[in-house]
Structures are given as structure tokens and as C-alpha cells.
Design goal:
The structure holds two protein chains of two kinds.
Chain A (H helix, E strand, L loop, with lengths): L2 H34 L6 H14 L5 H9 L2 E4 L5 E7 L2 E5 L6 E5 L4 E3 L4 H14 L6 H14 L5 H10 L3 H16 L5 H14 L2 H13 L2 H50 L7 H22 L7 H23 L8 H23 L15 E4 L2 E4 H23 L1 H11 L1 H6 L4 H23 L11 H14 L4 H41 L10 H4 L1
Antiparallel strand pairs in A: 1-2, 1-5, 2-3, 3-4, 6-7
Helix pairs in contact in A: 2-4, 3-4, 4-5, 5-7, 6-7, 7-8, 8-9, 8-10, 9-10, 10-14, 10-17, 10-18, 10-19, 11-12, 11-13, 11-17, 12-17, 14-15, 14-17, 15-17, 18-19
Chain B lengths: L4 H24 L12 E7 L7 H20 L7 E7 L5 H14 L4 E4 L3 H14 L3 E3 L12 E3 L8 H11 L4 E7 L2 H16 L7 E6 L7 H10 L6 E6 L5 H10 L9 E3 L4 H4 L11 E4 L8 H14 L8 H20 L4 H8 L3 E3 L5 E3 L7 E2 L2 E5 L5 E6 L4 E2 L13 E4 L6 E5 L4 E2 L5
Parallel strand pairs in B: 1-2, 1-3, 3-4, 4-5, 6-7, 6-8, 8-9, 9-10
Antiparallel strand pairs in B: 10-14, 11-12, 13-16, 14-15, 17-18, 18-19
Classes of the chains: A mainly alpha, B alpha/beta.
Pfam families (chain B): Peripla_BP_5
Protein name (chain B): Amino acid/amide ABC transporter substrate-binding protein, HAAT family
GO molecular function (chain A): transmembrane transporter activity
Chain lengths: 540, 441
């Protein structure tokens, strides 16, 4: 080897090695000015910067863009450099957006947030989709494919093709194929390919597919337009069927809420015959108990947050039950047999309780958070089921079953039924009827309390919470038949379903009125409700 | 001790009376904290519900008024006299508003009243103020179609909130289809009527607009939200314009979050949701949904900072938010002070005449001027919900917009103008017929 060739070889080696060794750094310097451009100005400049970063296809840019979308990207006021900042105590902990290196902490006044609006969020979503299509994590790839589907960006076709070729997971590949079909419809590809894409998307058969197909129909001509129109008609036919199913689900869910609100009343009003206008306030107290429990957990044991509802349940039962006990001992027991006075007294009581809560907690809504297992939704075929609603349905049925067991299979339940059927006879048999009254009322109130825990998940936690349920609760109990828990169950669920079937046609206001009218007509025909109690108890 | 029900019933009569009295006491709780009359004070009426459904919103405004009066007294009062607040509680009961207003004006002889929130309560007190010739400052955004000599509307008229918000969605977000979702009462119904007419005048087809109403306090939004979702599946960009009021908002937003309606795809712009309403919500899933107001707590101006600091100090809780009606109350009070100083008396007629043209700084770095139609000039701000429960202003009008009492988009009111200056002195002057009074063109 001549010295010259040796030098050349050495140089080559250095170059190769150097290239290998330093390529990340080099790419980093390539990315750096692009990232720095994120913090320069208004929404339009930021959008251009995001597009420029996406064009590099550099997957390390994904966390930066993600941070932008999450609102964690800041520009330092001193040197305009872009950093990722996350809250750490009262300050913000800074990291370098590209290398992830720790840059210490800073006061929030030293930083300026890179602002994002909806348009920019859409750009961010599709950018992240494109950048993470090749991610090693399966779920990331799946959500990336879905994001690309939403974006319908013809520029993403190339990377989609590569990703599909490499993809091994069937479900992810399917999602990618769908995304590809959606992108093709937005591209200059030949019509035959587009018609194929229309068929692929038509097979999805959901709202997202409709969105894509409608867009095609409004812009395309000829065969493609016919294909899209046919697909849309097919999906709409299917969806009409599924809509009915969805309505039943919504109805059951509304019914479960009614059941929860009414089941305590089914005991105090249905079994004992007390018109308790303060029933809704027991529900409210249960909801506020949940709030207090969550606040305590937030300040002292944040790790327990997912169990907060489980902790709140017994407490809400005890709080509402105890207050119910006090109310029965001090007020209601003097008024047995005089419904009008009971009505007025308990109504006044409900106002007092509301105002008391308003004075203690303030008139504003309180925030009750949802544990992770209660947020979000999942799809069963074309039905969307939200977790919170599902759990409330399950919970309402569980409460119903438990109460039935309590009434049928325990000695307290037996005494309770004995007292309501024939008070004097029960007293002669040695049952302490006043105490049975008191505990029955406490039970009804306690059940209302636990209903409040569940309702805090879907409604306002405000002093007015109870008011919105009191009329509905009475409606359910009267409709279902006084003195019968089964009646309450069937009444609540059927009213819920009826309401939800009327709502899409009549609107929420008219639906409510119609339901009320139907109940009145029904009561004319069957004054004792769906499940009438038979026997001597009725004659009293 | 407990010898069975029947005996107790008889014993219970006395207790029942006591209970009846208790119930009445409960009704009256929180009413009328009236101070003793003194000659060297100017009385100011505060007419906001402190109990009942509207307490959630109105209690805050009562506190703001007390703070502003307190501040003014520290500055030496007005015309050399101390201001004295007279707070009454109309308990979210519309007819009671009228009674309490009458009491404030005739018994307590207040110089002006600051109060009301819902349009129903304003409509209830309006005849009282006109009959007894007193002054009401109304601090909430409303549906317009009204102009009274005795009322100063310091909140937004529809052209200062609803129409710019729709313009923003149309121009910046390219929205083509509209869901107008509202609570079933006068404000949403009138606003939606104006918006429908406006949208159609901009070329939106009637089938691209759906209007839906729900009752007060509605909590089961499943059907409505899924209807919004399927309406949005048409391919064209869809937005929801929400005039949902009060308590119904929280379950509405919870359902939006649960069903995954994202602001990027289907933004919801609300006219009644401010910082206070968001305080009861986890705003994480709602980031990007919009609200249109004339003020946001996040606006970065020295005036706003001073106001927020003062508010936190007064209420002794630095977590309490500020909102648009609070700014409207602030502007209204400062205007009244200025007009009284200008007139040199609290005599209502002199003050009413002095009010027109009064200009005070607002909290967003501009100025509010009282126009001859008793509405203000206001900037319009569009904010996006952030995950900390605040709004980030994404768009605002170039300058201030003049409030229009009578909408130009409704056939009944398009020819009406209002000018309370002499010689016209008319709240509904018809420019087509050249006569004062009456609706219709």
C-alpha cells in the first residue's frame, strides 16, 4: 500500500466511522432549527414549523410534537429557545425537546407557552400519526393509523405503504389499510383504485366511514360518486338499525339512573308511605360525601384515587342514613298518617338542607373526578358504550338485588314488612315498631346516599343536585306501583327506554311532557301502578 | 318511651306547627340583611339570588358589588358621602325579584340597583323600574330585543357575542354545518332565531342547521350528543353553538368527553360557560372547545391583574376565578360612579341623562362607552378551554363592537333603533315609519 492509498483509506474509515458516530448529532442539529422555529410566532408559523418537522420523518420529533399538542412546549423568554416544561412543585422542570437532557427548573414567568389552537391540534394529530407509524409499540402504531385515517392526507401514502409492508399485527395492518384507503380518496390516484377504497371504507360501516364517503360523494363524479352514494345508503340502513339498539342502551342507562334515584324513595314512600320531599337532598349529601372523600384523598393519599368511589360508598350510606335517622326521630314520626303536613315539612327540610350545604361548601359546583376505570367509552360493533354509564347500570342492579335480599331474607326485612302490613299486629308480636320505622327510613335515606355517589359521576355536584331527581323519582315509584321494589325496577327502566325512544323524534322537552301525560293516563287505568300490591295492606 | 304510632300522631300537632314555621324560616333564610338608614350615605341596591338554582352564578356578583362599594368607600365615597350596600335575596324566584326591587326602590330608597342574571328576572323587574323611575344595571350577556330608559345593559348583546363567534367558526375553522343546542327559555330561543337568520343570510342551507332545546337542569345528554356525532358525520365541518345554561352544562361536557367528541373535529362554542362553570369540571378532555365573551380571566393586562388581586384579597381565597359578568358589573359600577360625579347628584333622571357617553376603562386594555341605546362598546374575545380551567384567547375583534339592542337579522326588529338622548328619547324608534314605539316594520 502506498502512503497515499493508506491516507485515503484512513480518511475513508474516519469518514465512515465519523458518519456513524456523529449521525445522531448531525440529525439533531438538523432538527434543532426546525424545533426552534416552533416557538417563533403565531399559529401560522407554528403550523409551518410542525409541517417542516413532519417532512423530515424523524421519529425523534414525535415527543416534541406531542408536547406541543399537550401544551407542554414553552419558549424561554431570555433566549427564545424551545423547551419542554412540566410542572414540578411551584416551578417548571425543563427538558431539552430533542435530546431529553435535563435543563433544570424555571419559574413560569420566565417561559412563554407555545400556544395551540384547534387547527394546530389537527395538524399535530396527523403529524404524530405520520411520525409514529413505524413505532415499535403496537398500540402507538394503532393510534397512529387511526390519526392518519382522520387526517385523510394524500402525502402520507408513501409512509403508509412502507408501514403496511412491515406490519405484522393483523389489527394494526387493517387500520393502516383503512387509513390508506381514506388517503387514496383524497389523492390523484386512478378511479378504479378509489372505488376499491370506497368499498373498503364502506365495510367499516360507522360514522367515521360516513364522514369520508360523504366528502367523496360531494366532490366526485361518475362511477365513483355512484359507488359512494350506494355505500352511504347501505351504511345508513345499517346505522338506523343500530340506532334503535343504541336507543335501548341509552334508555336502560337513563332507567338505571332513575332506578338509583328512586329506589330509596321506593322504601320511604313505597313501603312506609312517607312523602319525603327531602329525598333528593339525601342523594345530594351522598354526592357531597364523595367530594369530601376525593378531596381528602387528593391531599393525603393521591394513590388511592381510583378507589375513592369504593371508599365513599359506605361513608355516603352512613352519612345519609344517619341524617335520615335523625329526621325520622325528630320530624317524620310526629307526622305519620298526615301526608299533607309531611309533604310541607319535608319540603321545608329540603330547602334547609340545600341552604346548609350552600353555606358550608359554597353555591358553586364541586369537582368530583372520575377514576380511570370510569372514563371513556368502548365500542361493541356499532354501539358506543361509555364506562361510566355501564358501571352505573351494573351498580343500580346490584343495589336492587341487595335491597331485595335485605327485605326478603333478613329478620330486619321481615320486621319491616310486618310493620308496614299490619302495625298493631306486629307490635303485639313484640316488634318495636318505632325503631323499625326509624331504621327503615334510615335505610331509604342511606340508599339515596349511595345513589348520590354514582350520580356524582354524571351530574353536577351542587346544592341543587337533588331537586332535579325528586319529581322523576316519585314518577317512577307511582308508575311502578307503591310498595313494590320490582315495580320500581320495571318502572324506572321502562320510563328510561320510553323517554329515549321519544327524544330523537319529539325533542327532550316534549319527550318529558309526553312521558308525564302517558303516566297520568296509565294511572287512570291502573291506579295502583304496574305491580299493584294485593291483600289487606292495600285497604288501609 | 315509644308507644307506637297512633299516640304519637296526636302529640305531633304542636311539633307540626313548629315545623311549618321552620319551613318558612328556611324559605326566608338569607333574606334581607338590611342596614340601618343613615342620612350621610348613598344607598346602592344589590339584587342577586343568594339561594335557589341561580345562587351558583349570582352569589359571586353580589360579592363583587360589595367589593366595588368597599373600594369606592376607601377612596372617599361618592359626592362626599359613603356608599351603603343594601343586599336582598330574591331566591331565584322571578316574581320575588319584582317584589324585592320594589322594596329596594320605595322602602330603602336606593340610588341605583345592580342585579338580575336571567332574562326572566330582568323581564320581571322591568315594569317596576319603569313605574318607580329608578336605575338598574344588568351585568349579563342577553338576547337583546329590549331597550329601557331605566336599564343599562352592561353585558353583551347578541352582536357582541354570538355573531362574532359564529363568524370565527365560519372563517377560521371552515364550519359548514351547525347544531344550535340550547336550554328551553327566552335567551337561547331568541339568540338561536337571530343566529339562524344570520347563518342563512350567509348562505348556509336550512338543512345544514339543526336546533335542539332541552329543559333546565337537563342531565341525560346521551341522545343529544350522539345526534351531534351523527350530524357531524356528513363530511362537512360541523360545530355546536351552545346556549345551554347553568347546571346542565357540566353533564353536557362530561358526555361530550365520554363519547369522544373532540374540539379538533366538532368544536363546541358556548355563550354561557365561563371560568366559574368550568371550576366544577375536569377540563382535560375539553381542551379546545370554545367560549365567546368580552372578558377572560387569562387576559394579560395590568388592569385585570389588579382586579384579580383585589378580588382574591376581598374574598380571601386565591383560587376563586373571575369571569365576564364580573367585569360587566365592574364596568357598570364605575360608569354609575362617573355619571353621578358628572351629574353632581344621585337623582335618577339626572344620572340617566349623564350616563350616555360615559367612558371607563375595561379590564382587557380598552374602553367601554355607554351608547345612547344604553348598551356598551365591548371587544369580543374567542377563547379555547385549557386543561387548567382557563381560556386561551385565540381570536379577538380589532376594536370594540357597539352593542345593538335590536337585531338587524330579525324581521320584527330590523327597522328599530334605540336612542335615549333628547329629543328622540325612544327605545324602539322605527326608522321605516319614523315613529316611536311598536314592533314590526
Amino acid at each position: 500500500m502506498t502512503p497515499i492509498t493508506r491516507i485515503v483509506l484512513l480518511l475513508g474509515l474516519v469518514l465512515v466511522l465519523g458518519g456513524r458516530l456523529f449521525s445522531p448529532a448531525q440529525a439533531a442539529t438538523d432538527l434543532a432549527p426546525l424545533v426552534a422555529a416552533l416557538g417563533q410566532g403565531g399559529y401560522d408559523q407554528t403550523e409551518q414549523a410542525v409541517n417542516a418537522i413532519t417532512a423530515t420523518g424523524d421519529s425523534r420529533a414525535a415527543p416534541v410534537i406531542q408536547a406541543l399538542g399537550d401544551g407542554d412546549l414553552y419558549a424561554r423568554k431570555s433566549d427564545k429557545s424551545v423547551v419542554i416544561a412540566r410542572r414540578k412543585g411551584s416551578d417548571l422542570a425543563l427538558t431539552d425537546p430533542i435530546t431529553g437532557a435535563d435543563l433544570g427548573t424555571a419559574k413560569s414567568s420566565e417561559l412563554e407557552k407555545v400556544r395551540v389552537n384547534n387547527k394546530l391540534r389537527r395538524v399535530v394529530r396527523s403529524a404524530i400519526g405520520t411520525l409514529t407509524l413505524m413505532s415499535p409499540d403496537r398500540n402507538t402504531r394503532l393510534s397512529a393509523a387511526n390519526a392518519v385515517f382522520q387526517a385523510r392526507d394524500a402525502d402520507a401514502l408513501e409512509i403508509l405503504d412502507t408501514a403496511i409492508a412491515k406490519e405484522t399485527d393483523a389489527q394494526v395492518r387493517d387500520a393502516m389499510e383503512n387509513a390508506r384507503a381514506a388517503a387514496i380518496l383524497n389523492s390523484q390516484h386512478p378511479e378504479a383504485e378509489k372505488i376499491e377504497a370506497v368499498q373498503r371504507i364502506a365495510a367499516l360501516g360507522n360514522d367515521d366511514a360516513l364522514k369520508v364517503l360523504n366528502a367523496v360523494q360531494s366532490s366526485a363524479q361518475g362511477d365513483l360518486r355512484t359507488a359512494a352514494a350506494k355505500a352511504i345508503a347501505g351504511i345508513q340502513r345499517d346505522l338506523a338499525f343500530w340506532n334503535a339498539g343504541q336507543n335501548v342502551l341509552y334508555g336502560l342507562s337513563l332507567g338505571s339512573v332513575l332506578l338509583l334515584a328512586a329506589i330509596g324513595l321506593a322504601i320511604t314512600f313505597g313501603v312506609m308511605g312517607v312523602i319525603n320531599m327531602a329525598h333528593g337532598e339525601m342523594v345530594m349529601l351522598g354526592a357531597y360525601t364523595t367530594y369530601v372523600v376525593q378531596e381528602a384523598i387528593r391531599t393525603s393519599a393521591p394513590g388511592l384515587f381510583d378507589y375513592s368511589l369504593a371508599i365513599a360508598l359506605p361513608l355516603a350510606f352512613i352519612v345519609a342514613g344517619a341524617i335520615g335517622l335523625v329526621i325520622e326521630r325528630t320530624i317524620i314520626r310526629w307526622l305519620y298518617g298526615r301526608p299533607l303536613e309531611t309533604l310541607l315539612a319535608t319540603w321545608g327540610l329540603s330547602l334547609i338542607l340545600q341552604q346548609a350545604v350552600r353555606s358550608i361548601f359554597g353555591p358553586n359546583n364541586r369537582q368530583v373526578g372520575a377514576p380511570a376505570w370510569m372514563s371513556g367509552a368502548f365500542d361493541v360493533d356499532h354501539l358506543t358504550i361509555t364506562y361510566s354509564r355501564l358501571w352505573i347500570l351494573v351498580f343500580a342492579l346490584a343495589v336492587f338485588v341487595l335491597l331485595n335480599v335485605l327485605l326478603r331474607a333478613t329478620s330486619f326485612g321481615l320486621q319491616m314488612r310486618a310493620v308496614t302490613q299490619n302495625r298493631r299486629m306486629a307490635a303485639s308480636m313484640g316488634i318495636r315498631t318505632p325503631w323499625v320505622d326509624a331504621f327503615t327510613f334510615a335505610l331509604g335515606s342511606g340508599v339515596a346516599g349511595i345513589a348520590g355517589v354514582a350520580l356524582s359521576q354524571i351530574d353536577n355536584v351542587s346544592p341543587n343536585l337533588g331537586q332535579s331527581y325528586i319529581i322523576d323519582s316519585f314518577m317512577v315509584v307511582v308508575f311502578g306501583g307503591v310498595g313494590n321494589l320490582w315495580g320500581t325496577l320495571v318502572g324506572a327502566l321502562s320510563l328510561g327506554v320510553l323517554n329515549k325512544f321519544l327524544e330523537p323524534y319529539a325533542g327532550a322537552v316534549l319527550a318529558k311532557i309526553l312521558v308525564l301525560v302517558l303516566i297520568i293516563l296509565f294511572i287512570q287505568k291502573r291506579p295502583r301502578g304496574l305491580f299493584a300490591l294485593k291483600g289487606r295492606a292495600v285497604e288501609q | 318511651m315509644f308507644s307506637g304510632g297512633l299516640n304519637n300522631f296526636r302529640r305531633g300537632i304542636g311539633a307540626g306547627r313548629i315545623l311549618g314555621a321552620l319551613a318558612i324560616a328556611g324559605l326566608m333564610a338569607g333574606t334581607a340583611t338590611r342596614a340601618l338608614a343613615a342620612d350621610d350615605t348613598i344607598k346602592v341596591g344589590v339584587l342577586h339570588s343568594l339561594s335557589g338554582t341561580m345562587a351558583i352564578s349570582e352569589t359571586t356578583l353580589k360579592d363583587v358589588m360589595l367589593m366595588l362599594i368597599d373600594e369606592q368607600n376607601k377612596k372617599g365615597g361618592l359626592l362626599g358621602k359613603k356608599l351603603e350596600p343594601v343586599v336582598v335575596d330574591p331566591a331565584s324566584d322571578w316574581p320575588l325579584f319584582a317584589e324585592k326591587a320594589r322594596q329596594l326602590i320605595s322602602q330603602d330608597k336606593v340610588a341605583a340597583v345592580f342585579g338580575c342574571w336571567t332574562s326572566s328576572s330582568r323581564k320581571s323587574v322591568l315594569p317596576v323600574f319603569e313605574e318607580l323611575d329608578s336605575i338598574l344595571f344588568y351585568p349579563v350577556q342577553y338576547e337583546g330585543e329590549e331597550s329601557s330608559r331605566n336599564v343599562f345593559y352592561t353585558g353583551a348583546a347578541p352582536n357582541q357575542q354570538a355573531i362574532p363567534a359564529v363568524d370565527y367558526l365560519m372563517n377560521e375553522e371552515g364550519v359548514k354545518r351547525w347544531v344550535l343546542e340550547g336550554t328551553d327559555y327566552v335567551y337561547p330561543r331568541t339568540t338561536n332565531k337571530i343566529l339562524q337568520a344570520y347563518l342563512q343570510s350567509k348562505g348556509v342551507k336550512p338543512e345544514d342547521i339543526i336546533v335542539n332545546y332541552t329543559p333546565f337542569g337537563f342531565s341525560d345528554w346521551q341522545t343529544e350528543v350522539s345526534k351531534i356525532k351523527s350530524f357531524g358525520a356528513s363530511g362537512a365541518k360541523t360545530a355546536v353553538v351552545s346556549t345551554i345554561n347553568g347546571d346542565a352544562n357540566v353533564p353536557f361536557y362530561k358526555e361530550l368527553a365520554n363519547q369522544g367528541v373532540k374540539a379538533e373535529d366538532t368544536p363546541v362554542v358556548a355563550f354561557s360557560v365561563g371560568e366559574e362553570e368550568l371550576a366544577g369540571l375536569d377540563t382535560g378532555p375539553l381542551v379546545g372547545h370554545l367560549a365567546a365573551w368580552n372578558y377572560f380571566e387569562s387576559v394579560d393586562t395590568p388592569e385585570n391583574k389588579a382586579f384579580i388581586d383585589e378580588w382574591h384579597k376581598f374574598i380571601k381565597n386565591d383560587k376563586r376565578t373571575t369571569n365576564d359578568p364580573m367585569e360587566a358589573a365592574y364596568i357598570g359600577f364605575n360608569m354609575w360612579v362617573k355619571a353621578v360625579e358628572k351629574a353632581g347628584t344621585t337623582n335618577q333622571d339626572a344620572v340617566i341623562d349623564a350616563m350616555v357617553g360615559v367612558t371607563v376603562p375595561n379590564l382587557t386594555g380598552g374602553y367601554a362607552t355607554m351608547m345612547p341605546n344604553h348598551h356598551l362598546t365591548k371587544p369580543v374575545l374567542i377563547g379555547e378551554i385549557q386543561d387548567n380551567g382557563q381560556f386561551d384567547v385565540v381570536w379577538q375583534t380589532k376594536g370594540e363592537v357597539v352593542g345593538d339592542a335590536w337585531s338587524d337579522y330579525l324581521p320584527d326588529s330590523k327597522n328599530l333603533i334605540s336612542d335615549w338622548r333628547k329629543p328622540m328619547s325612544c327605545g324602539n324608534f322605527n326608522v321605516a315609519t319614523g315613529k316611536c314605539g311598536g314592533k314590526g316594520s
